[in-house]
Amino acid sequence: MTDERRKNGTLGDLVKAESMIQLALVLPAGCLIGALVGSALDKHFHTGWIAVVGILLGAAAGFVQIFRTASRYMKRDN
């Protein structure tokens, strides 16, 4: 298969669809993982604020991943 056919064919459409699904899931997944880790640390250290920090760090990591994926696709289209 040639590169041009892959880029414009069914395989290219599937890769784009997978990336869009990834963009939709990365932010909530980052927040969830941050909340779970923060909650576990809260229980271990007997505090109440680490889960909030975990959610914020997870959201920041999700936004960074969204930005990286979006910029990668913007570069490919040019």
Specify the number of helices. Answer: 3
Helix content: over 70%
Using the alpha-carbon principal axes, give the shape.
Answer: elongated
What series of H and E elements makes up the topology?
Answer: HHH
Count of β-strands: 0
Mean pLDDT: 87
Range of strand content: under 5%
Number of domains: 1
Q: Tell me the structural class.
A: mainly alpha
Distance between the termini: 22 Å
Summarize the main sheet.
none
Unreliable stretches (pLDDT < 50, length at least 5) are: none
- Gyration radius, in Å: 18 Å
Short summary:
It is built from three helices and no strands.
Topology, please?
Layout lengths: L2 H6 L1 H36 L4 H28 L1
Characterise this structure.
This protein has one domain. The protein has 3 helices and no strands. α2 packs antiparallel against α3. The mean pLDDT is 87.
From the structure above, extract its key features:
78 residues, mainly alpha
